[in-house]
Structure prediction request, 522 residues.
Amino acid sequence: MRVALDLWTIVAVSAGAFFFLAGTVGLLRFPDALTRLHALTKADNLGLGLAVLGLLPRAAGLLGALKLVSIWLLVLLASATVSQLIARVARREDSA
Amino acid sequence: MNTATVFGLAAAVAAGLGTYGLIANPQPLRKIIAFNLLGSGVFLFFGVVARRSAGAGFGGDPVPQALVITGMVVAFSATALAVALLLRLFQASGSATLRPNAPASTDSGRSEA
Amino acid sequence: MGLGFEVGLIVLVLGVGAWTIAARETFAAVIGFATYGLLLALVWVRLSAPDVALTEAAIGGGLTGTLLLGAAARLRATEPADAAERSGAALHMVAGVLAATVTGGLAAAVLFLPDPAPTLAPAVAANAPATTLGNPVTSVLMAFRAMDTLLEKVVLLLATVGVWSLAPDRLWGGRPGPRHQANPDGVFAFLARLLPPVGIVVGIYILWVSADDPGGAFQSGTILAAMWMLAMMAGLADAPPVSRRSLRFALIAGPLIFLLVGLGGLWLGDAFLSYPVAYAKALILAIEFPMILTIAVTLGLLLAGPPEREPGR
Prediction:
């Protein structure tokens, strides 16, 4: 059982790291601000979600697991808002 | 060469970077950023000393760690005062530079001193 | 495996630090500095100092980054003139030599630190039962070196007065910062309505849990200050005029209660700031709650800057 949980942690966190890498590649390769924001928001949040899923078996009890999930939700909320605001400014500067 | 020593060398490099930026860059805001970098290197040095003094079941000596926490808050308040001074200089003279007799920048209004 | 992770982390941190110094645009340098602060928090975790990591992430990365970002935005008008100004080669040489001296000196100090290292950890562990706290850093901050923490409160207060004193004479006592407006139906206002309740709970939780686990009053106060800043920046709350009595009372509540408890220790106990063991935790909590109110208000006011609007408006 422990082996299965450790394997789950390794697989999920590695998948999360892969998505972070994908998001960074998007940041470096995409042509303008809006597409880069898209890559970062989608890929990074998914990567963080996978990392959190992978760490859940190692959390300290139910409260620890809830804290991990709430971290992910808060990052989701903050990054969605910030990317909206940056996109608005980017579009305004593009059209100016 | 263990963890603490290698972080200690990193702290030395960070302090050196901060010193270089403090002296070499003429813009005041960049000097303030470099000063913070220098401070973070010094705090990291404290942290290395704390880590090396681990004992009695703690991962690090708590006294230097408490000093660093206090130091970080004081450094922030010093930075805030420095930034306020810089912004006031900009308001009063029209340019944020340390050169004497600098011309005012073109599109900032002159406000009362 | 060895030191692989540490070396990788150090290369990343120093790379971002070097970029912060070398970047051409001020805006880029500020973003680099905020990133540097957050990565440095990871370094602190590797040094087994989670309380300091929290403080670095919150104050070093978050608050200082916000402060510098606001300043960079306001100084954008000077950017072209100042970017053209470059120091001479001689100054760069002098700076390089001094930087190398500083680095060399600190590196030598690190490599020649005494081995075995002198430590105060056993002394802290031996005296910890007197404070009935499980987190040694909290017991050092609030009991063994409580004098430092009290004086630090006073330093924060002095910095706030210093920032206020930079207001033009006719604006003394006015509201700091411009009046921020955001679309009340927009995303930012939505975030500013949703996040502060969560943030306040998290902030008070970090204080409450700092008795036995990593956390602390400064980290807690920083989170509360950030929530207040968020509400102000979205236009949901306006900065109060600095002449308002309730604001000034909030600023002194922390150090005042701290001082009163300290004097109580002098009068009823052994010495200034001594706590009777039976009431140690209760007294420390009684000090810490006003303390986070003061820290939150002070940090928020330091971020907001000197008064820029007349008190009436």
Summary: Chains B and A do not touch (no CB pair under 8 Å). The CA atoms of residues 43 and 72 of chain B lie 8 Å apart. The helical segments of chain B are 3-24, 28-52, 62-93.
